[in-house]
Amino acid sequence: MLDITTITRIDIASVVGYYADAKDDYYSKDSSFTAWHGQGAEALGLSGEVSSQRFKELLVGEIDPFTQMKRSSGDATKERLGYDLTFSAPKGVSMQALIHGDKAIIAAHEKAVAAAVQEAEKLAQARTTNAGKTITQNTGNLVVASFRHETSRALDPELHTHAFVMNMTQRGDGQWRALKNDELMRAKMHLGDVYKQELALELTKAGYELRYNNKNNTFDMAHFTDEQIRGFSRRSAQIEEGLAAMGLTRETADAQTKSRVSMATRDKKTDDYSREDIHKEWVNRANELGIDFNDLSWAGKGKDGPQTSMNTVPNFTSPEVKADRAIQFALKSLSERDASFDQSRLLAVANKKAIGQASKQDIEAAYYRAVAKGAIIEGEARYTTTTDQRSKDAPPLPAMTKAEWQAQLTDKKGMNNDQAKALVAEGIKSGRLKKTSHRVTTVEGIRVEKAVLNIEARGRGKVIAALTSEQVTAQLVGKTLKAEQQKSVVDICTTTDRFVAAHGFAGTGKSYMTMSAKAVLESQGFNVTALAPYGTQKKSLEDEGMPARTVAAFVKAKDKKIDEKSVVFIDEAGVIPARQMKVLMETIEKAGARAVFLGDTSQTKAVEAGKPFEQLISAGMQTSYMKDIQRQKNDVLLEAVKLAAEGHISGSLARLSNISAEKDQDKRLEAVANRWLSFSPEQREGTLIISGTNESRVILNSQIREALQLQGKGVEVNFLERVDSTQAERRDSKYYQAGQIIIPEKDYKNGLQRGESYRVLDTGPGNLLTVAGSDGQKISFSPRTHKNLSVYTSVAAELAVGDKVMVTRNDKTLDVANGDRFTVTGTTEKGTFTLTNAKGREIELDQKQAAYLSYAYATTVHKAQGLTCDRVLFNIDTRSLTTSKDVFYVGISRARHEVEIFTDDKSRLLSSASRNSPKTTASEIDRFLGMEERYKDVNRSYGHDDGQQAKSYGHDAGQQTGEKETTMKNATETAHDGPDMSGAENSSQDLRQHEQEEVNAAIRYEQRQEATPEMEANPYHDYERYADEGPDYGDMQDYSTYEEYEHARDVELPQHEHENHQHDHDKEGYGL
After folding, report:
1. What is the DSSP string of 634-650?
2. How does DSSP assign 427-451, residue by residue?
3. Is the distance from CB of 580 to CB of 572 less than 8 angstroms?
4. How far is CA 658 from CA 507, 672, 1055, in A?
5. Does residue 937 register a pLDDT over 90?
6. Of the residues 245, 363, 387, 910, which has the maximum number of CB atoms within 10 A of its CB?
């Protein structure tokens, strides 16, 4: 709905003619459709209609007869005259306004454009130079000339306005200068959202119902069918035909290709039509399409579906109610994936939810109400300088709070506090300090993280050691354990803590260590079992001889099958999110069992919110470490992996010599594919292609299939690809799309059956979803009351003999797990195809049924975690937000012998691969920083005997804050009856004990504040219900809610070279 184009000085006359004289619009040139906007225009005395003469004068920089701006020091033809912000109404809106003649819609469009221009004005900046130093200054004013056009080149109705932003703004000193356009160009999506939100709100007020398209983040009139809208979209059809001739679609073509096709398919301008002729043709076409502009009822297959009061929204006279609900929705949706998130992101999600129901101002007011109620906890805003004079390749300067900037000025510049405070305030106002983030979290997020830490801390010293160190060592005689592995086994078997961890880098043999510990524990009568986040990991554990369940299945089961004599090993603990970790730990604690967490905090984190494994280790959970990596057989590669594991990316990259750069993505991916194709078939089997984004993975798979000449030689099938959505989104019909496939995860009374496929037919009216099963029967329901739904898209594909595929959903019937890899080995006359895995196991699938498969020539980093191979071909896009330390480490640590990196920019590779993981915790918000440190010494003694056991505090997993928040009492109620000590040693101990008592007292104080009866009764008013509705793990078939991210099964690709380099201690069958 918004495009931004930079207009340069090529032909002033043509620019003036296009905009001011409406030469490109046949329908509007009979009337005046122009206006001046902006405080800059006001300063120049401009208002009302735009005259061609004044427009031309400002284009060339003529402020007045005595003032001439110069905006280019080089080629005058490249001088930037301004920026065309084109705001386009949806097609149905244009039809209702221009064919039916609804003037209220024209007014709504104009109001929306004005709102977006007003928002753009906040981004206006100019440069100023003082003493040879150039800085940025916020100006807050623009000169904008708007021109409304109402036809497309294909002579279809197309209501759009060109808001021409002059390349000029007035600085605080009164001087007119060229715009610094960085912020304006970056804000394209935001400004488009402002326009959409204002337009949708005005249309709703006017009585129109809207239909939302979540795929494109757009909306349109709900009383038109898709066919009717396509009937007035001949320009879109021309572009789509042009793309189709190239084998592309709007989804698969890049922006440059679409732009070229758009220009190539443009009709030539003609003056053969009058306004009346065009309108008459529109009316005739509308009649042929059966359009009744006066019937505003919903047009779609959900029209006759059941309407219930729970699906209706409150009366429009209460937009604040809808704004509050939008903020609640945004909190719910974002907190599923991230424990803390940027304030601007929260507002953007809420604004999208409230489109057509509340204004941007309503949403902002609702946000501050939520802050006042305590539902949102704000961190401090952080700012970075805009006057950094260093090279572009230099790493970005840190963003700091106001207080940190002030401290910087007082410490390094010698200013007093008042001077520093004033300078920082002025820097923010002028734009020299730019706000980069303002992170927020939820009270529920803090509560969950504290509960996890409390449960672990109260389990310290509460179990009896299975054996002594000497006894464990004796049992390990003859084992080929490395020293670190043996120490981990000893720690696990001798601990008196309920929860402990074994932290091991990739390839250190955590699994072999686990099986050794299992044998020792079982010799003492313990029941040893394992849990894993994903089905693939569960199968891998079972293959090694370890009884295993998925974490979700364990949590859901009525009979947990654990007791005081149980030890639960929890594999890949680093990918367990905070909410699920809390439930898991509560369950183990209630049973009196003990747990061992296995994982690597340097690898990729949970898809959902939090990183509790890392927090538990930071908070002092007993942890043994395994750093002796055994996987890599190449000494240089081994050193690179070790450095990456420790976060030293610079040193790691220095040891990886095989790095090539190609900026063009298509050429770079082609180079990756060609490198893989250059290997022998045996070498290919031992080579893993890893790509940082799902988009590049898809392209690589397509390129390789084409090069292998498999296209056109197989059978046509449909792959089901999981839609990346949050549970909050899946409970609102506007976030679905017609044609998507829904898979219920449980049976429902309305006829929806678990595991069956249903195609979405309609996404309204209201919060109504209409679907059809394989029998064609329609079912309409509210997704609000059907929360256990998985959503997929059906993608046309082809399978030929020899194709490499990967399973993307667990299937108990076929005994396959998400991530299992197969090769297509045959097709049958009865319409089935056969898949065979590396062990020779075959499964048969019906080609007529959509399959949970994807091509497996290339994989994402998340899918690669857990795999081992000889060689890795690693595509890293430095501009992708997914590139980070953990992604880099996981990628290079898959290989035994060799890693080849393909990137877009070598100079940016270090900075992008050095980024920390975007995964956050709630405790990273300023006021909670260092929360984990306060738990380190809780329930730890310093030479004292714990003379009495602490009281038991609510081991019922169903208890609320009483269990979560008051459990640290035992830290101070524990008696210390040890012998008297004297001298310096005694003083040191007394000091540490005194400090810890202060910490414990502070924790208890916080817990009392959080657990007051008033707060428990109604802490957050209407927010409390929403905050309590976390993901319902118990009702999920498996925890693989977001299966695109599920890690691969812990398997190895076949070795076909360097086999003589096996290490005696490298138990690769157990290697992780």
Report:
1. SHHHHHHHHHHHTT-HH
2. HHHHTSEEEEE-EEEEHHHHHHHHH
3. no
4. 22, 13, 21
5. no
6. 363
d(CA 1050, CA 821): 11
Distances in whole angstroms, Cα of residue 338 to Cα of each of 374, 608, 930, 1041: 18, 7, 19, 15
Number of Cβ within 10 Å of residue 929's Cβ equals 11
Token pair belonging to 120: 């753009």
- For residues 93 and 115, give the distance between their C-alpha atoms in angstroms, rounded to a whole number: 18
- Tokens read off for 27: 């329908």
How far apart (Å, rounded) are the C-alpha atoms in residues 666 and 253?
12
Tell me 562's DSSP state.
Answer: -
Reading across the β-sheet that carries 157-166, which strands appear in turn? Answer: 2-8, 80-88, 157-166, 144-151, 34-37
pLDDT in the model for residue 414: 83
Q: How many CB atoms lie within 10 A of CB 23?
A: 14
Distance CA 178, CA 480 (A): 72
Q: Residue 890 forms beta bridges with which residues? A: none
Rounded distance, CA 1046 to CA 1061, Å? Answer: 31
1033 token code pair: 């793990």
Distance CA 49, CA 767 (A): 43
Report how far apart, in Å, the C-alpha atoms of 372 and of each of 363, 386, 444 are: 14, 32, 15
- Could you give the CA distance from residue 574 to residue 600 in angstroms, rounded to a whole number? 6
pLDDT confidence of residue 4: 85
Contact 821, 838 (CB under 8 A): yes
Lowest mean pLDDT, pick from 252-266, 568-582, 691-705, 944-958:
944-958
Angle, helices 12-19 vs 52-59, to 10°: value is: 140
Q: Give the global pTM.
A: 0.82
**What type of residue sits at position 477?**
V
Span 973-989, pLDDT tens digits: 332 333 333 343 444 44
List strands edge to edge, sheet with 853-855. 842-846, 832-836, 821-827, 804-807, 853-855
Of the candidates 694, 598, 639, the residue with the CA atom closest to the CA atom of residue 1050: 598
**Beta pairing class for 623-626 and 499-504:** parallel
Do residues 351 and 365 make contact, with C-beta atoms less than 8 angstroms apart?
no
Q: What angle do CA 646, 531, 506 make, to 5 degrees?
A: 20
Task: Count Cβ atoms within 10 A of the Cβ of residue 594 and give its class: 0-12 exposed, 13-18 middle, 19 or more buried.
Answer: buried
What region does 592 belong to: left with phi over 0, alpha with psi -120 to 50, or beta?
Answer: left
d(CA 986, CA 982): 5
The HSE-up count of residue 618 (CA atoms within 13 Å, CB side) is: 18
Q: pLDDT band at 1067, cuts 50/70/90?
A: very low
Residue 1064, beta-bridge partner list: none
Under DSSP, the state recorded for 872 is: E
Measured CA to CA, the distance from residue 271 to residue 960 in angstroms comes to 74
Strand, coil or helix: what is 1031? coil
* DSSP conformational letter for 782: -
Output the six-digit token pair for 545.
Answer: 């001889």
**CA–CA separation, 451 vs 449, rounded Å?**
5
State the amino acid at position 555 in one-letter form: V
Hunting for tokens 């007011």 — which residue is that? Answer: 365
Residues paired with 228 in a beta bridge: none
| Among 954, 976, 985, residue whose Cα is nearest residue 967 | 954
* Cα-only R_g, the chain: 32
